C-alpha cells in the first residue's frame, strides 16, 4: 500500500430534517453570503427553510451560479463579499454551486490575480473564507472534499484546483431533497459518482485490498439503486443510499494508499467546455474508450472489476472486454448516451483541438502509469465519436 495522509475536517450532517440544525452550525454573528444556482431552491422550499433557520443572521444573497460555474460569475460574488464585509459563505445547491463557492472562498483573500488559481493550478492551503454547504443534488461529492472545477468562459477552459483550506466546515445532506429533481439530474448523479469511483479503482492490481472492497461496494450500490432511484426518488432507502454513495465516491477515502487515474475527467472537462455537455455524460462518453485504448495496462484490474461486480467468467482478456461492455450497458440503462456524435454534429476536429490544448499545457503523460500520451489521447477521443 502506498504511503498516505488522510485529512477531512468536514462535519457531515446527514438525514431527514437536518437543515433545522443550520443555526447551530453557522458561526454565531456571521454575515453570510447565501450562494445558489438557477432558483430551484425557491420551488422546492429549501430557500425558505434556510431563511427560517437563519433568523438573526445578516444575509446577502447571490444567485445565478451556472451548472458549470463560470469564473466571471464567481468573481462578481468575490466583489460583493469584499464590499459588504461578509465573513461566511453558505452554498445551497449541487456540486456546481459548492465548487463555485470553493473558488470564491479561495479568491477572496488571494494575493494576486484569482484566474491564476485556475490556470496555474494553485492549491489553497490557508487564508480561505470559511463556508458550509446544503446539498440539493447528489453527484460530485464536493460536499465532503476540497476540490473544485470552474469554467473560464472567455477561454473555453474547464479547470480543476483545490487545497486543504477548501473543505466545507459542514455539509447538510438530506436525501429527501432529491424528490423534486428532474430525471436527467438523477441520471447524471449516478453516472458521475460511478465514474469517480472508477477513476480511483480501475488502474492496476495493488495491495489496497480494503480500498478496492469499499470502491466495489459503492459501485455495486450504485448499480443496484441507480435505475430505481431515477424512477422513485421519494423512496428514502433508495435516496439515502444514492446520496451517501455519491459522497463516499469522492470524499478522499478510497483514493488513499492506491494509484488513481483522472484522465477521463481531464478529457471530459474539455467536452463540457467546448459543447456544454453535462459533466457526467462526458465521462460516459470518454471512460469506456479510455479503458479500450489502455486495455493492455488496465486489463488485470478490468478483469477483477468484471468478476467482482458483474460475476463474469472466462480468460482475463475475455472478462476485461466484457466488463467494458457491461459498463456501457449500465450507462445506457441509466439513460445516458455514450457517443459524442449523439450530443453534437461538430465533433470531427475535437480530438485535434484537445490534443493541441493538452500539448500547450504540457499534459503529455496522464493516467496512473503516466502512459497516456498525446497519441493515445487522440485515439481515445476519436474512438468516442
TrEMBL record:
Q: Which residues form the Alcohol dehydrogenase iron-type/glycerol dehydrogenase GldA domain?
A: 9-175
InterPro entries (UniProt xref): ADH_Fe/GldA, ADH_Fe_C, ADH_Fe_CS, BDH-like
Does GTP-binding show up as a keyword for this record? no
Q: Which domain of life is it from?
A: Bacteria
List the keywords (alphabetical).
Oxidoreductase
**Keyword Iron attributed:** no
Q: In this protein, which residues make up the domain named Fe-containing alcohol dehydrogenase-like C-terminal?
A: 189-353
Tell me the protein's name.
NADH-dependent alcohol dehydrogenase
- The organism named in the record is Flavobacterium palustre
Q: What is the lineage of its organism?
A: Bacteria, Pseudomonadati, Bacteroidota, Flavobacteriia, Flavobacteriales
Amino acid at each position: 500500500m502506498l504511503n498516505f495522509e488522510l485529512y477531512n475536517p468536514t462535519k457531515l450532517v446527514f438525514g431527514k430534517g437536518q437543515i433545522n440544525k443550520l443555526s447551530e452550525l453557522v458561526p454565531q454573528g456571521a454575515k453570510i453570503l447565501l450562494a445558489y444556482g438557477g432558483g430551484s431552491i425557491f420551488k422546492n422550499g429549501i430557500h425558505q427553510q434556510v431563511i427560517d433557520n437563519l433568523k438573526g443572521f445578516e444575509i446577502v444573497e447571490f444567485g445565478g451560479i451556472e451548472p458549470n460555474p463560470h469564473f466571471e460569475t464567481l468573481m462578481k460574488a468575490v466583489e460583493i463579499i469584499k464590499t459588504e464585509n461578509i465573513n461566511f459563505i453558505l452554498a445551497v445547491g449541487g456540486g456546481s454551486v459548492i465548487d463555485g463557492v470553493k473558488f470564491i472562498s479561495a479568491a477572496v483573500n488571494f494575493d494576486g490575480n484569482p484566474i491564476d488559481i485556475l490556470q496555474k493550478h494553485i492549491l489553497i492551503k490557508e487564508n480561505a473564507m470559511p463556508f458550509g454547504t446544503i446539498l440539493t443534488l447528489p453527484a460530485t461529492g464536493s460536499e465532503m472534499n476540497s476540490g473544485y472545477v470552474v469554467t473560464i468562459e472567455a477561454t473555453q477552459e474547464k479547470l480543476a484546483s483545490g487545497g486543504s483550506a477548501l473543505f466545507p466546515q459542514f455539509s447538510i445532506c438530506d436525501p429527501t431533497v432529491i424528490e423534486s429533481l428532474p430525471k436527467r439530474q438523477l441520471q447524471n448523479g449516478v453516472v458521475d459518482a460511478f465514474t469517480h469511483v472508477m477513476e480511483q479503482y480501475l488502474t492496476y492490481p495493488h495491495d489496497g485490498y480494503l480500498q478496492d472492497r469499499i470502491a466495489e461496494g459503492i459501485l455495486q450500490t450504485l448499480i443496484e439503486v441507480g435505475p430505481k432511484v431515477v424512477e422513485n426518488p421519494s423512496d428514502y432507502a433508495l435516496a439515502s443510499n444514492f446520496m451517501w454513495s455519491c459522497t463516499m465516491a469522492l470524499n478522499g477515502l478510497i483514493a488513499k494508499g492506491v494509484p488513481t487515474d483522472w484522465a477521463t475527467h481531464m478529457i471530459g472537462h474539455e467536452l463540457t467546455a467546448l459543447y456544454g455537455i453535462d459533466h457526467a455524460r462526458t465521462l460516459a462518453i470518454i471512460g469506456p474508450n479510455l479503458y479500450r485504448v489502455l486495455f493492455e495496462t488496465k486489463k488485470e484490474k478490468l478483469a477483477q472489476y468484471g468478476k467482482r461486480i458483474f460475476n463474469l467468467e472466462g480468460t482475463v482478456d475475455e472478462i476485461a472486454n466484457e466488463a467494458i461492455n457491461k459498463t456501457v450497458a449500465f450507462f445506457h440503462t441509466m439513460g445516458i448516451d455514450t457517443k459524442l456524435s449523439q450530443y453534437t454534429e461538430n465533433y470531427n476536429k475535437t480530438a485535434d483541438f484537445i490534443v493541441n490544448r493538452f500539448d500547450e499545457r504540457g499534459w503529455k503523460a496522464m493516467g496512473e502509469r503516466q502512459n497516456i500520451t498525446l497519441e493515445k489521447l487522440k485515439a481515445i477521443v476519436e474512438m468516442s465519436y
